[in-house]
Amino acid sequence: MSLLSVENLQIRFRTGDGLVHAVNDVSFDMAEGQKLALVGESGSGKSQIALAIMGLLARNAEVAGKVRFDGRDLLSLPASQLNALRAAQIALIFQDPMSSLNPYMTIERQLGEVVELHEGASRAEARKRALEVMEAVRIPDARNRLRAYPHEFSGGMRQRIVIAMALICRPRLILADEPTTALDVTVQAQIMALLDEIQRDLGTAVLLITHDLGVVAGFCDDTMVLYGGRVMEAAPTPAIFDAPGHPYTRGLLRAVPRITDGNVTLSAIPGSPPNQTAAPRACPFAPRCVDAIPACHEMLPDFREGRACIRPVEELT
Ligand SMILES: Nc1ncnc2c1ncn2[C@@H]1O[C@H](COP(=O)(O)OP(=O)(O)OP(=O)(O)O)[C@@H](O)[C@H]1O
Ligand SMILES: [Mg+2]
């Protein structure tokens, strides 16, 4: 059985301008210990998928489909059970560490409170666990720094603390939403190496959300590419890089900065993201696709053999 199974997930938002079709018919499975990347441009629906799994969608959201974790349907679970489950077994790491940390509480209290609350641990036990995870995420001088407040740490160290907070209940699934985007490149690499090591030690499954294919390459077993709230392509990560099967994936790969002879080349995909106020009736990427033919503007491609595109791979530019 899969650890996480998302089936035909549909997320719409009621707005003054009508319904926004943010996530359309998204399905995927994650096995215990699997590292899956969810990539796509801004607005493609990545965060909403994570929020739906956590039961944290905004109040104007309408959700349909199934999200099963360990066999239980999260979308229909009573709030109390969902709370218990998401604290103990699923952890969410956000992009901005300051939004996950309370500026007025010491690190020890923030970390400790989680285990006291969810596992009924004693103060002393909570302190011990806080120290363990601080050491696991390599905070130097962890024992003394437990008494410090978030602002006394650098951005990279704060993100380590957020990861520590996610780990303290030993979750089976971590949803990491752009965990390194706010950090500079060197620190980004350190945080990804840390996540990788933790993942290997604990066997935690990780859903990594990012718009940066460079981050995906070294970390994830499998990659799912989203556009306009729809899965364009899903494949093992090496295949995504070596033999991308969708024009959008190909475009994204061309947009990864490459350094050749000391020159950084970056190509963006021309055009702008789709208007999502109408239910999709054609390929959402067609207006920006270099390979589009008239049929692409008229029908919604089925997702078949890992890709949603009516053009044969051999014919793509
Ligand atoms: N409460 C809301 N009401 C209306 N629309 C919303 C709401 N929340 C999200 N959306 C829309 O849903 C779509 C998907 O948003 P989402 O946050 O998942 O994007 P994303 O892929 O995470 O982008 P980014 O890379 O910028 O974080 C966007 O078009 C967004 O404007
Ligand atoms: Mg997002």
TrEMBL record:
<comment type="similarity">
    <text>Belongs to the ABC transporter superfamily.</text>
</comment>
<keyword id="KW-1003">Cell membrane</keyword>
<protein>
    <submittedName>
        <fullName>Oligopeptide/dipeptide ABC transporter ATPase</fullName>
    </submittedName>
</protein>
<dbReference type="GO" id="GO:0005524">
    <property type="term" value="F:ATP binding"/>
</dbReference>
<keyword id="KW-0472">Membrane</keyword>
<feature type="domain" description="ABC transporter">
    <location>
        <begin position="4"/>
        <end position="253"/>
    </location>
</feature>
<dbReference type="InterPro" id="IPR003593">
    <property type="entry name" value="AAA+_ATPase"/>
</dbReference>
<dbReference type="InterPro" id="IPR013563">
    <property type="entry name" value="Oligopep_ABC_C"/>
</dbReference>
<dbReference type="InterPro" id="IPR017871">
    <property type="entry name" value="ABC_transporter-like_CS"/>
</dbReference>
<dbReference type="InterPro" id="IPR003439">
    <property type="entry name" value="ABC_transporter-like_ATP-bd"/>
</dbReference>
<dbReference type="InterPro" id="IPR050388">
    <property type="entry name" value="ABC_Ni/Peptide_Import"/>
</dbReference>
<dbReference type="GO" id="GO:0005886">
    <property type="term" value="C:plasma membrane"/>
</dbReference>
<dbReference type="GO" id="GO:0055085">
    <property type="term" value="P:transmembrane transport"/>
</dbReference>
<dbReference type="InterPro" id="IPR027417">
    <property type="entry name" value="P-loop_NTPase"/>
</dbReference>
<keyword id="KW-0067">ATP-binding</keyword>
<keyword id="KW-0547">Nucleotide-binding</keyword>
<dbReference type="GO" id="GO:0016887">
    <property type="term" value="F:ATP hydrolysis activity"/>
</dbReference>
<dbReference type="GO" id="GO:0015833">
    <property type="term" value="P:peptide transport"/>
</dbReference>
<dbReference type="Pfam" id="PF08352">
    <property type="entry name" value="oligo_HPY"/>
</dbReference>
<dbReference type="Pfam" id="PF00005">
    <property type="entry name" value="ABC_tran"/>
</dbReference>
<keyword id="KW-0813">Transport</keyword>
